[in-house]
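#help-structures
NK: newbie question, is this the right format to request a structure? protein is Macro domain-containing protein
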Amino acid sequence: MADAESVIINTEDYIGETEYHTPNRKVTTPEWFILVANFILELPSAVFDQLSSVHKPQYALLSMLMSFIVLILSIVDLVYKGRKKRVTFMWRGLIPWFYYQHPNRTLMSFGTFSEIIGLVCSIFQCVFTSIGYGFLYRHVDNPINVNAWPVIFAFGVLYYRGPERLPILRNRESTLLLRTLNEEENTAVFPLSSSTVLKINKGDITKWFVDGYSDAIVNSANQRMLGGGGADGAIHSAAGPELFDACYKVPEVQPGVRCPTGEARITPGFRLLASHVIHTVGPIYGFDVDPAASLKSAYRNSLKLARDNNIKYIAFPAISCGIYGYPHEEAAAISISTIKEFKDDLKEVHFVLFFDEIYDVWLKKAKELLLPWPDSQER
């Protein structure tokens, strides 16, 4: 087998509705235009700055104008890339920043080191050239003379992003892409309608997300909504103590009951990658009078809550299939048939199932009840 570091993938992959562009591509024409224009403007800006004097303030004016054009181009470059990556402004940790979803479903901070430093350099250059022009306009010698270093930086950026460096970067990113595609091997895709797909994934639901603002995971909770064992406890642990506080504030409909069996409540996701958590309570098999109706209600109310809160992507566990003891095959059939009722209300419905035996049951039942996506493989 070939070493992953040496593999270059030259195709585009479509998994469900998500389009994955492989890193092995040339820099797009707009990116090259902005890069070259930035580089070309840096040179005369520095030259005009050196030529400027008390008797020639017009050169300082030209240097200042070019610096502002460079700043505008840097901002346009970042906006262009941000729109392509569909970045979202989020508060994660101590500092708010822009984030986007990498194909491996990791939330990545937006902007490379060279792009951020380039923007900072452009801002400082605008400040220094403006101050310099202000001094010369008043016929006072400019005490600030630091505008040669942006040219050095421009050469560095051109080298870093130039074509001779791209193969190395492509190889490294291709390794990450190969790992991403391997992770997707445990996903089966089924169309629910022309605009909605069902995805059955094997994995950890606490790590699932799509875009970080219109996605939600479903927590198979207990009636108190204050955490418990299994996936419930894992979700509370991953979301942090803020989730407990939010659940505690949910009004009790009767003493000790915030969410009755079959109903659903929604909270923010806090430290989870998904933006929201929908809490629902499934039936305890053998104790519930009509467990099938209660389980159907749990799924239906979760989907209604998602629709009413503009959630476009939702991930379910196997509700009631843990310590509540619901038979897996019957639970899978109920869940999939209920989801079909909401086939036009969301973009993607996921089942994220941790255990192999449950994943296999859901996959088998989906094949019985739904037609697989044409490009979906049996995994």
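mod (FA): yep, format's fine, and the tokens are attached above. Residues 57-85 form the longest helix (29 residues).
NK: thank you!
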